[in-house]
Design a protein that fits this description.
With about 180 residues, the protein is an alpha/beta fold. Helices cover about 35% and strands about 35% of the residues. The chain has six helices and nine strands. Helix 3 crosses helix 4 and helix 5 packs parallel to helix 6. It is globular, with a radius of gyration of 16 Å. Homodimer.
Length: about 180
């Protein structure tokens, strides 16, 4: 328990609140101070790697863009492959895509068609779970590729935005792990 409290305190101490960004009334959670601190960044990626191993994942999918920053070193530490899930049009070659609804419109994410296959167990990694739209689309994409969802791991969950409730049906019993609850 003490170790969990210590990592929680360390991570929280390195996340900066930026008021009125990107628009008035929003408090942006800036993780760049955490990334700049080798001890905090190592603790974070180590915790994500441990969750990856605990849930039997064979690959990590990192969601654009901060999921790349967190997921790649976690994959190295866990000894698993790393797969970037990008916004549509950013990957060369054959891709699988998944559209999802936003509050005002829609968006689309993609993965290389050959990167996920039957037998893969995939942990989705991102910095924040907010409304859950991108994470939900990534789970659909992973399953369409024939892979299995091992879980979703995030640095922080913004509980007041309801992402967990939205994601619950798509998880289909897979775990959602948030290192911090905001």
């Amino acid at each position: 328990m003490t170790e969990l409290v210590n990592i929680t305190e360390l991570l929280l101490s390195r996340i900066r609140d930026v008021r009125d960004y990107p628009e008035p009334g929003v408090v942006f959670k800036d993780i760049t101070p955490l990334l700049a601190d080798p001890a905090a960044f190592t603790a974070l990626t180590g915790a994500l790697a441990e969750l990856t191993v605990r849930h039997g994942a064979t690959k990590i999918v990192g969601l654009e863009a901060r999921g790349f920053i967190l997921g790649a070193p976690a994959a190295v530490q866990a000894g698993v492959g790393f797969i970037p899930v990008r916004k549509a049009g950013k990957l060369p070659g054959a891709t699988l895509s998944q559209s999802y609804d936003l509050e005002y419109g829609s968006a689309e994410i993609e993965v290389h068609a050959e990167d996920l296959v039957a037998g893969d167990r995939v942990m989705v990694v991102d910095d924040v779970l907010a409304t859950g739209g991108t994470a939900e689309a990534s789970l659909q994409l992973i399953r369409r590729a024939g892979a299995e969802v091992a879980g979703v791991s995030v640095l922080m969950e913004l509980g007041f935005l309801g992402g967990r409730a939205r994601l619950e049906p798509a998880l289909a019993g897979a775990p959602l792990e948030a290192l911090l609850q905001i």
